[in-house]
Amino acid sequence: MQWKIEVGYKPTATDAMGEGIKKDIEDLGISGVDDVETIDMYMIDGDVLESDVESICENLLTDRVTQVYAYKGSLVGQDDPGAWVVEVTYKHGVTDTVGDSAIKGIKDMGINTQVPRNLIGHITSIQGYAELLYDGGVDQLSTEQQEILEIIIRNSERLFAKLREVDIAAQGELYWLRQRVAQLEQANSKLPKLTTFE
Questions:
Q1: pTM score, whole prediction
Q2: What is 173-187 written as a DSSP string?
């Protein structure tokens, strides 16, 4: 599944990049631009739970004091439905360093976006169909076709076993990380509360 996450600034926060772009537009001699708002967009592919997307938004991609996020709906045009929207993306082949950092952060959170869980189901279907063909579920197969089906069945069994290993390892790592977070939260709750003065 693909998740589209938008991160923008709260109305009370300063959007320095937006202000800079507005100034650049004015420097080009273009008038009539009242405001420029910037929104960062992240596309996350994989079998990621909605609760994990929420955690990624809150703990990795946004500054809770100055920013807001949306992964259901959009932040675009909320204040002015008639505003122009310009999307800027990297050309194919250009390194997206922010995206690479986000991927590393997501992995550090213990969230795996690489192997979709439904991939195991797809491999099981391929394996079952190959076995059906091999066992005579269709007309007579040539020797060469039977050999190819044997290879498909054997390789799908190997891949299925590897995916189970990866899934078990990921679940174990996730369990360990959740335990560690719980320990840290418990230790944090024992710290004295700081008083702030305004």
A1: 0.55
A2: HHHHHHHHHHHHHHH
